[in-house]
Every structure is written in structure tokens, then in C-alpha cells.
Amino acid sequence: MSMRIPATSEGAARIAIYLRDAGLAQVDGHEGEVALAIGDFLEAMAEKEAIGDAGSLYTYPVPMLTQDGACSVLDELAPVPYDLTGILGGRSDQSTRRLALLERLVERAQETTGSDWVGVYQRRPTPAGHPVLVKLSYVGRPSRAEFPLTAEFAAGSTNSTVGLTGRALVIDDVKKHVEAGGGFYVCDGEVQSEACLPLFDEARNVVGILDAEAKPKSFYGATRLATLAALAIVASAVLP
């Protein structure tokens, strides 16, 4: 794993390219804040912390799904937690370390932005070969583990839309967004703001997304989006 954003024109260019490719015009003029946030995330990853229960990094509770699998059943957990082991192709020291780092990153992002929910997803094929976004690490209420990367599912999901298009979506008022025909997958009925950003590899392919949600409206202004852009840049190098 290599992650270094130098405080030079090279680092500034990398940030500018990400903001351009993700369509984050809201962060124009705030590139310095992105750079500072990247430094903060790198410091968080450098902190020495022992991994306690490695198994807990691979499993998490998820809501029950409706019979057709299209929606979550709010406040009703599935009897069996989701296990990342299958879709990651097993457990390894490398995957464990990277999941631990992602956990540290989403926790820092939640603390820094004050979001109610922050999560990082990776694009991976299911055992049946279908491309999905699988949730690797999150802070907040239990939520769906996999989001199908299909146009049909994207019609009702911000995550799938960003995973397919590679363009960030920022919602200031979920109710108005849905009334206008926009897709939104409900895991918490109190959420009114969302920022969903793509993760890119070095070839500019979409390799995942990060999602952040908050209960107040118009929560994700330029400063919070700068922090999330930094998270997207750093997290892309930490995916297992």
C-alpha cells in the first residue's frame, strides 16, 4: 500500500484531478482544506493501535430486506450478520490490516464532519459474478451490505448511481430530492442530507464509493465536502 500526497504542485494536481473527475465543483477554491484533511487522515492511519478482535472487522449487523431484496426493513435486523469473508475471497493479514485502517478512517471522518453515518464501499463481484458495492467499514446505524451496480437498482439508490457514473451526488434535502424523482435508499428515515463520492484507482476507474449522511438539511457544504474528498482520495489506496 502506498499513499503519499506531497505538499507540492504534484499533490495539488492530484487533488484537482479528483475534484474534476468526481464533479465536485462545490469544493473549488477549497483545495487547501482537502490537503489538510488528507494529512489528518494519514496521521490517523499512522497511529499505532493493536487489532483486538480481527473477526469483528469482517462481520456486522444488517437490516432484514424486503422479499424482493429491493429495500431494507427499518429497525429489524437480520438474524445472521453479514460476513465479508466470502466476497473478499477469505481472510488474510493484509485484508485485516486494511479493514482496520478503513475503520480508523471512517471514525475520523465522522468525528471531523459530525455526520450521523459514514461508510466506505468497494466495487467487487459477488460469488455469482454480479458487480456490487460491498460495505467494508462504517460508523452509524446498521445498513444494507451490498448495492447492485445495475441501472434498475440505481434508480432508487444514490450509492449505485455514483458507483456507475463516477460522479459525486450531494443532496441537501432528501424529501425534495425524492419528490423531484431522485433515487434514495432509506436506511434512516430522519436523514435529510447525503454526500456520496466515488473512489478512483490510478487509471481513474471507479473502484468504490464513500457515503455520508446527516439529519440536518444542507449539511454538506464546501468544508465538509473537502474532508470527504480527502477521505475518498486516501481510502482508495487502502481498499483490500
Any key phrases for this structure?
240 residues; alpha+beta; Beta-Lactamase; six-stranded antiparallel sheet; two-stranded antiparallel sheet; 7 helices; 10 strands; 22% strand; globular
Commentary on this structure:
The chain is of the alpha+beta class and 240 residues long. It has one domain: GAF domain (Beta-Lactamase, 2-Layer Sandwich), CATH 3.30.450.40. 35% of the residues lie in helices and 22% in strands. It is built from seven helices and ten strands. The protein has helices at 9-22, 31-46, 93-113, 151-154, 158-165, 174-179, 222-235; strands at 59-60, 63-65, 72-77, 82-83, 117-125, 131-139, 146-148, 169-171, 193-200, 206-214. It has a six-stranded antiparallel beta sheet, sandwiched between helices. Strand 9 (193-200) and strand 10 form a beta hairpin. Helix 1 (9-22) packs across helix 2. The longest helix is centred in the middle third of the chain and has 21 residues, at 93-113.
